[in-house]
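Re: [ENG-882] Designed sequences occasionally contain unexpected residues at chain ends

Forwarding the minimal case from QA. Structure tokens:
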């Protein structure tokens, strides 16, 4: 298998995780026989080493031969479990998307179900915390594409959309509970093409939240990841901000207001 082929990562997309059990994507059946269990352990070791190499060398320099060396086997043996660098990148994408999804869903679930502002804050902080803890994996998901690699949508769409699905359900729950404020009187007229896109999304996910409020939610989603990416990738410039937690909390409060969400409930 060629190992020097360029790759590309970072598509919003995913499938059942390599190791994850939470979230929108159903967990794959566990290995039943000793041989299947041994294979699963080997694949898990390859993914673990792939994460370490990703952190040290970046996605473009990812090498199955180097992973094989650290695993203590010849490179031809690794190809029996992971057939190419592209496959290793796909496994790393799925693994990272699901870990992020698990943490976001757990954070949202820990907030009372009627505290929609608090849920939004918990979701945003979970994304930021994971990104700051796992900058190389965040970069694989949301940074510059790896040239030549295209994530297989049939495997990556599920895990890769877990955060936005959680956010859409949060907005929809707030609307159904009468806790999402209506659009401002001077909201721009929505173009027909955009209205059609939003109608498809609402139908696909069974959302009651109207199109204009869903569009505001989309703005909150992209702005949330923009704020996280600026911090993770050092785009603010050295010395511009020092109160990082306070900056992000302020950004979350502004975005919640843009989306029409209520303020988070006070904690005793």
């Amino acid at each position: 298998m060629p190992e020097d082929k360029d790759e590309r990562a970072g598509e919003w997309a995913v499938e059942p995780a390599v190791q994850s059990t939470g979230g929108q994507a159903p967990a794959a059946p566990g290995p039943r026989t000793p041989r299947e269990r041994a294979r699963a352990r080997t694949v898990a070791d390859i993914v673990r080493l792939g994460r370490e190499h990703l952190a040290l060398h970046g996605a473009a320099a990812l090498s199955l031969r180097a992973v094989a060396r650290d695993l203590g086997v010849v490179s031809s043996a690794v190809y029996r479990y992971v057939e190419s660098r592209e496959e290793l990148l796909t496994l790393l994408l799925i693994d990272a998307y699901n870990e992020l999804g698990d943490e976001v869903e757990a954070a949202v679930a820990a907030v009372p179900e009627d505290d929609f502002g608090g849920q939004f804050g918990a979701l945003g902080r979970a994304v930021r915390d994971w990104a700051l803890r796992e900058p190389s994996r965040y970069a694989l998901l949301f940074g510059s594409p790896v040239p030549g690699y295209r994530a297989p949508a049939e495997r990556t769409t599920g895990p890769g959309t877990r955060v936005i699905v959680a956010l859409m359900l949060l907005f929809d729950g707030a609307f159904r509970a009468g806790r999402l404020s209506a659009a401002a009187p001077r909201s721009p007229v929505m173009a027909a093409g955009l209205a059609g896109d939003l109608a498809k999304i609402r139908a696909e996910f069974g959302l009651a939240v109207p199109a204009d409020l869903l569009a505001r939610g989309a703005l909150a989603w992209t702005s949330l990841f923009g704020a996280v990416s600026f911090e993770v990738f050092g785009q603010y410039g050295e010395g511009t901000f020092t109160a990082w937690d306070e900056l992000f909390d302020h950004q979350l409060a502004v975005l919640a207001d843009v989306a029409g969400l209520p303020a988070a409930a006070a904690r005793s």
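QA comment: On inspection the terminal residues look reasonable. Residues 85-109 form the longest helix (25 residues). Proposing we downgrade this to a documentation issue.
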